[in-house]
């Protein structure tokens, strides 16, 4: 795992994906806030679209209607500008820290002394999914040749022998039973 990290380039998609996951874990409030802001921006844009459509359909007639439209439109555009400025203040991928590549020796040294939760957290940053192939017999422990890793930032590996879902696994089992 550490040799894999050391071989990565600073600007590789894998390093950026790992750094993004690390930032998300360090600041879960940032992720939630970003999602809330994006949702509020979409709502405000929908409101503006609806308001403009109502204006075109003649719902704001006369000077009072025009004032009401103008007041609602200006209020909505001000809210939209406020939401967009708040969103811009939240760092994105371009501001991610990839300095962890420089301290891999320290990470590797700390791995053995880490508890299980810390090890799982680190693995969760690096691995999307792991497949374990069928054992040659009962009671055998998983060996590296039976493991297939889907590393963060890489396309999903193709497994002709591994089902991707429970439905697919059930279909494979059904075919075996029918044969």
Q: Return Rg in Å.
A: 26 Å
Instruction: Kindly report the spatial arrangement of strands forming the biggest sheet.
Output: 1-2
Gross geometry: elongated
Poorly predicted parts: none
Q: Tell me the fraction of residues in β-strands, as a range.
A: 5-15%
Instruction: Provide the structure class.
Output: mainly alpha
How many helices? The count is 7
The ordered H/E elements are HHHHHHEEH
Task: Please give the number of β-strands.
Answer: 2
Characterize the largest beta sheet: strand count, sense, and whether it forms a barrel.
Answer: 2 strands, antiparallel
* N/C terminus separation: 40 Å
The mean pLDDT is 80
Helix content: 55-70%
Write a short abstract of this structure.
By secondary structure, the chain is mainly alpha-helical. It has seven helices and two strands, in the order ααααααββα.
Description of the molecule:
- This protein has 179 residues and is mostly helical.
- 60% of the residues lie in helices and 6% in strands.
- It is built from seven helices and two strands.
- Strands 1-2 form a two-stranded antiparallel sheet.
- α2 crosses α3 and α3 runs antiparallel to α4.
- The longest helix has 29 residues.
- The model has no long low-confidence stretch (mean pLDDT 80).
